[in-house]
Amino acid sequence: HFELFSIFFFILVNFLKLMAFHDDGVCFLSLGEFKSKVVCEGERLRLGCKVGMQIAVYAAMFGRTQQGTLECPPHHQRAPSVDCSSDVALQVMTSRCQGKRSCVVRASTQEFGDPCYHGTHKYLSVIHTCERIRKRSLACFLSNFSHITNI
Question: Where is the SUEL-type lectin domain (predicted)?
């Protein structure tokens, strides 16, 4: 499952590097510098952009995959491998960070619910970029005529 998840996000990230999109009538242009951040359960995830830029969240996962992550090993070496992830991770990260210059979100079951069985050591993984707002750009004009515009 994790390999398919990784391949899907690799394709998604590279596709999104080339497109313009709308959010509440404002056009954003991806600058192509996508970043991945991981924090363990109980830690705070900090995202930030330079002046004149804002956060765009593309993917988020809170839970644990069978593959796991080196940053957040399970508490017990004999812990069973699990695949569990929050259904609201992307929604939470988007509502807390999208369009802001910086944000801090705690990787906790209070924020994301508990998608795993009790005692599973979870982590939060986020793919994001910093984008500049471009109003009245050619890409935005063209994207009014089709849902996806390659630049």
Answer: 39-131
- pLDDT 10s digits, 73-95: 776 655 566 789 999 999 999 99
CATH of domain 33-137: 2.60.120.740
For 87-90, which contacts have Cβ atoms below 8 Å and span 24 or more sequence positions?
87/113, 87/115, 88/112, 88/113, 89/60, 89/61, 89/62, 89/63, 89/124, 90/57, 90/59, 90/60
Q: What is the pLDDT of residues 12-40, one digit of tens each?
A: 655 554 444 444 445 555 555 789 999 99
Please answer whether residues 11 and 17 qualify as being in contact, where contact means their C-beta atoms are separated by less than 8 angstroms: no
User: What residue spans define the domains of the chain?
Assistant: 33-137
Residue type for position 98 = Q
Pairing of strands 84-85, 149-150: unpaired
**pTM score of the predicted model:** 0.68
Which tokens belong to 104?
Answer: 């801090």
